[in-house]
Model the fold of this input.
Amino acid sequence: MSGEIVNRVAKSKLITIDLEDLYPEGRRVRLDISEWLFEGLILREKDFRESVKQHNWDQYHNCYVALHCSTDAIIPSWAYFLISVSLSNVAKKCVVGDLELLESILFNDIIKNFSVEQFKDRPVIVKGCSDKRIPESAYVGLCQKLVPVVSSLMFGEACSSVPLFKKKK
Done:
């Protein structure tokens, strides 16, 4: 028996995809519009428009912005549209919702544009651990995109993966 340790993972044809490598850099910001409402509940159009006009939009330069209202106010759609117009030339992306929805939308765009050609008929493992918060919807979207082309799909780490799919021969 030889004392040489062989890294079988490094020698395998297994390809690892780490969604953290695709994580879009940029600050995430929640913009609560309740402070622009009368008593935090009532949208007065003239006052609201003035608040939007006076707001410092430059602070959102190259940010990902999640618009939301922290109160139970009923916000007309046009109010979010008006804000998005102000953010259109400043922010990288603007959504209505919380930061979790923002991340899901960002990764949905990434997965939609992710090329899977290089994984055709290859065994693939999608790395499960990351330092950044990757939405589960990103893993689901990637899985749906990979299944038609890969020979097998696993989740986790090469040393302890969970098999998800294997193409029938």
The longest strand covers residues 160-166. The radius of gyration is 22 Å. The longest helix spans residues 99-112.
